[in-house]
Amino acid sequence: MFSPDLFESPHIFDMTHKTSESELMEKIRDDYYETKSGTENTDAPSGDDQDPNQRTKKKRYHRHTQRQIQEMEAFFKECPHPDDKQRKELSRELGLEPLQVKFWFQNKRTQMKAQHERHENAILKAENEKLRAENNRYKEALSNATCPNCGGPAALGEMSFDEQHLRIENARLREEIDRISGIAAKYVGKPLTSFPHLSSHLHSRSLGLGTSNFGTQSGFVGEMYGGDLLRSVSGPTEADKPMIVELAVAAMEELIRMAQSGEPLWVSGENSTNVLNEDEYLRTFPRGIGPKPLGLRSEASRESTVVIMNHVNLVEILMDVNQWSSVFCGIVSRAMTLEVLSTGVAGNYNGALQVMTAEFQVPSPLVPTRENYFVRYCKQHTDGTWAVVDVSLDNLRPSPMSKCRRRPSGCLIQELPNGYSKVIWVEHVEVDDRAVHNIYRPLVNSGLAFGAKRWVATLDRQCERLASTMASNIPAGDLCVITSPEGRKSMLKLAERMVTSFCTGVGASTAHAWTTLSATGSDDVRVMTRKSMDDPGRPPGIVLSAATSFWIPVPLKRVFDFLRDENSRSEWDILSNGGLVQEMAHIANGRDPGNCVSLLRVNSANSSQSNMLILQESCSDATGSYVIYAPVDIGAMNVVLSGGDPDYVALLPSGFAILPDGPGLNGGGILEIGSGGSLLTVAFQILVDSVPTAKLSLGSVATVNSLIKCTVERIKAAVICDNA
Which segments carry the region annotation Disordered (predicted)? Predict the structure, then answer.
């Protein structure tokens, strides 16, 4: 069994709690109101705590001191119903009779109950008034109904069955729009009937969940952002918000049908995939966000799976921009919530509506990112199924024509027994992908790069990872396995930050604090630089990031196994200097044996060089694989393995992203050994100067460039030779 005392003793950091200024002001206000209303106290109880059998006595008034009131108020917040022992103890401390303490608490409870009832009555009265007004509007609408053909009064019995069905369906859609349209009316400051694109019969039934006090939320995958284009996108105007509500409701309807329909909307394609029938789609959904712009290509895909996570947590991940961008850090390079139009009903996200921007990536500098400006809408349906849908708002944004827009895309989440969920994912975009490098075109066209299969595979792997974090039944037979729950959680949290940081520097995104330098010529090595200061999770100084992608005629699984194996590390890792690499600790975090977090020790062949530790995470799913690593300090890792805070461990991650060079023969997933090739991206982050204010030298760039080229040549020589 692995022991956390393998290295040096851990340091313990004490955290002290300080009362905030707001808490102090709240306490002062409470004390003030108490002196106004509770300083005169009788020695008889009031309200429902009074004994009706007791004979009425003349009340005697006692004025409590400020200190007595403060002490009893503080105790009341912790325990509104003190027992006899607690009352006696309070009376001794405050110089009061036990009965005085008892009656003070009874009166205080009665006072709080009365305040609560008055508040509830006011809410019910307001709701009743709204329902009365709504009922009157319905009556008026029915009395004024006219026949569309002759203009005369319409009777329900004269309508055909199909017409009745259509009217019922329209009413249901109008009601759904109404559920959240009150929010937009609140922003605009006038009733929605003043907008011509909404029906004159729409009423303002507010959810009571306006969120004008919500600030902008950003989920930049754990990295600071630099010259961020997405940040320059402003939120929607007041006049746009009712239109956004309508668009979101229509998108939800489209997503449900796209997720649940079969032929002719979806037809069977090669490799058992679903292919969208474009003609049938246009017939089924003639309106939407308008026709496809010239120069854009349609991508549509659908995938389903069962994941080990309950539906409540899944919905929370999708509706919290920080969790969403963290869980899908390999796909979402940056994201931001511009405005929350509705938080949903109390206690969950049913009805939640938010305007967002996001940038999606493939882990390679050769594939341009895709930016979207969209609304996200969450709804729980009558059968208990949850749905989360995105739809582009590019038509509302005064900017040049977008190179990518999202038609209704998202997922349906169905609750299953034992904490599992079934997820059906739909991705439907229109994109200008002419800038994609030729070696990545088959992958992008197959849908494995940005399609539903990649989203579902990533979600499945992350759910497995989270389940392994919470696991308690860890086998103790392997000496390298970490059995301490605190040590496991800290090490997995550190590895998660390492993976997230790697993903920000491996793709084509320039949103973060990296400055892209000029390309190094025909070798397609993208070099970026950043200055790190006052960041406990990153060493201070100037950091260079270099990344390059290339095709290799070796199946993905063989490349993945070669790169993650510590025994073959000396064949490609120049920094290991030919030393022996040993696995010191191991945490499995998925069904696949390759999905794990390891702590490696490099015993250098040169005895004068101190031993080095390497934190490594390797993971693989149906659409690609990663091997990511970073050198770590021995003392810092000792703290982590003892359950200490991993946020203060400095990391500079490097590693590999391995993707198939096209769809496989078994359902569009990873190609098995013996067929196809791989698209390999190599990315390094290296500290070239420990002084953040120093100037970057050309020699440093040349050194990093040489390092990455040498590593690429070593990998090619090793894996191609083994595959021959």
Answer: 31-64
Strand stretches in 416-553, DSSP E = 421-431, 515-516, 526-532, 541-552
Instruction: Look up residue 423 and give its amino acid.
Output: V
- Per residue in 537-566, is it b (16+ CB within 10 Å) or e — as a string? bbebbbbbbbbbbbebebbbbbbbbbbbeb
Q: Which of 210-214, 472-476, 708-712 ranks highest by mean pLDDT?
A: 708-712
* Alpha carbon separation from 600 to 163, 197, 405, 626, 651 (Å, rounded): 70, 63, 44, 17, 15
Q: What is the pLDDT of residues 635-657, one digit of tens each?
A: 888 888 888 888 888 899 999 99
Residues in CB range of 339: below 8 A, 6 or more apart: 214, 216, 235, 236, 354, 355
Question: What tokens were used for 366?
Answer: 């050769």
**Angle, CA of 407, 221 and 370, to the nearest 5°:** 30
CA 53 to chain centre: 60
Look at residues 96, 124, 109 and name the one whose alpha carbon lies nearest to residue 38: 109
Backbone angles phi, psi at 621, to 5 degrees: -140, -165
Work out the percent of the chain whose per-residue pLDDT is above 70. 70
pLDDT given for residue 233 in this prediction: 62
SS3 686: strand
CB distance 597 to 464 below 8 Å: no
Any idea what DSSP says for residue 293?
A: P
pLDDT at 266 over 50: yes
The answer to whether the Cα torsion of 399, 405, 407, 411 is positive or negative is negative
How far apart, in whole angstroms, are the C-alpha atoms of residue 613 and residue 604?
11
| DSSP assignments along 96-117, one per residue | --HHHHHHHHHHHHHHHHHHHH
DSSP 649: S
- Tell me how crowded residue 395 is: count the other CB atoms within 10 A of its CB: 13
Alpha-carbon span 515 to 701, nearest angstrom: 13
CA-based nearest residue to 512, from 645, 685, 630, 682: 685
Domains annotated on the chain, with CATH: 239-467 (3.30.530.20), 491-722 (3.30.530.20)
- The answer to whether the beta carbons of residues 292 and 276 sit under 8 Å apart is no
**What DSSP string runs through 162-207?**
HHHHHHHHHHHHHHHHHHHHHHHHHHHTS-GGGSTTS-TT------
> Cα-Cα-Cα-Cα dihedral of 470, 475, 478, 484, to 10°?
40
Residues 440-489: tens digit of each pLDDT: 999 998 888 999 999 999 999 999 988 877 766 665 545 566 767 888 88
Distance CA 67, CA 86 (A): 18
22 vs 437, which has greater pLDDT? 437
